[in-house]
Design brief:
Length: 283
């Protein structure tokens, strides 16, 4: 069923479940496919961020796959280069903070990484949709596949070598999206505590209402990002978190303020702490 009056729109449910890491640094991941089949916005299709849109052979989960894999997977969902994508997730707010419920921003960033800028995030996701009394559907959805050409934007993706170089660079700004307690090292959820040296802290939870999934107003967000220098055009921001998910909320909020050049460190702390030669700072 297609309830949308405009043509060339594809609604995508990016729901995933991530049980947050404890002191051993291990997280548990679960596909949102079953949740999608139980209920979803009419006309929506499901994007499996754990398999179809990830390099499953990489050492760490949810690693960005090749552009070729992305193109095949997004084309299979009926998305062409002319399609406007509206992405949402199911925002199970009652599972926070044990489970991380915000995934739409990750897929928003991934689409932009592969050169697709015709993408919007539905604020509040399925939860707000249902609260407003809107129609839902159930069951799997099949669509006609189409052709998508990926045009990767390498400036939006940071690798570990980029972060190593950034530590000694004055024109790159590292931003941790983790909580102040994890950033400072007071709370340890990875095998080693602390943050990447010279990085600033902007907690993603201050940029979003974790109960409703709505994004904080730009008037609220601007001073938080300004005070760490993230709006300075002379520096290149690289944001990170635990696994490159929460960091995309910071990237999205910066994009709303006009910074569309923000890179996400895909491996984030999961990759960084795995090598004891990589420094950490506790403060």
């Amino acid at each position: 069923m297609n309830i949308w009056p405009l043509k060339n729109i594809r609604i995508i449910d990016a729901t995933t479940r991530l049980k947050l890491a404890t002191s051993d640094g291990r997280s548990a991941y679960e596909s949102g496919r079953q949740a999608f089949e139980r209920q979803h916005i009419p006309g929506a299709v499901f994007a499996d961020l754990l398999t179809d849109f990830a390099d499953t052979g990489a050492p760490h989960p949810i690693t960005v796959p090749s552009s070729e894999q992305f193109a095949r997977a997004i084309g299979a969902l009926g998305v062409s280069n002319d399609t406007h994508v509206i992405v949402y997730d199911q925002l199970e707010g009652d599972t926070w903070p044990e489970y991380y419920p915000f995934w739409a921003s990750r897929f928003w960033w991934h689409l932009r990484l592969e050169g697709h800028t015709k993408v919007s995030v539905l604020e509040g996701g399925l939860a707000k949709w249902k609260q407003e009394g809107r129609q839902i559907e159930t069951g799997p959805v099949k669509v006609e596949p189409t052709q998508f050409t990926a045009r990767r934007q390498p400036g939006l993706l940071a690798r570990v070598d980029d972060v190593v170089s950034a530590i000694g660079a004055n024109d790159v700004l590292l931003i941790s999206a983790l909580s102040p307690a994890i950033y400072s090292g007071e709370k340890q959820v990875y095998p080693r505590a602390g943050h990447i040296p010279r990085s600033k802290n902007v907690f993603f939870g201050d940029l979003i209402d974790t109960s409703s999934g709505r994004f904080a107003d730009p008037a609220v967000v601007r001073p938080l990002l300004q005070q760490v220098g993230a709006l300075d055009p002379a520096v290149k921001p690289i944001v990170y978190c635990g696994s490159g998910i929460a960091a995309t909320i910071v990237a999205l909020q910066l994009a709303r303020l006009g910074r569309t050049d923000v890179a996400v460190y895909d491996g984030s702390m999961t990759e960084w702490v795995a090598d004891e030669r990589r420094p950490l700072q506790v403060s």
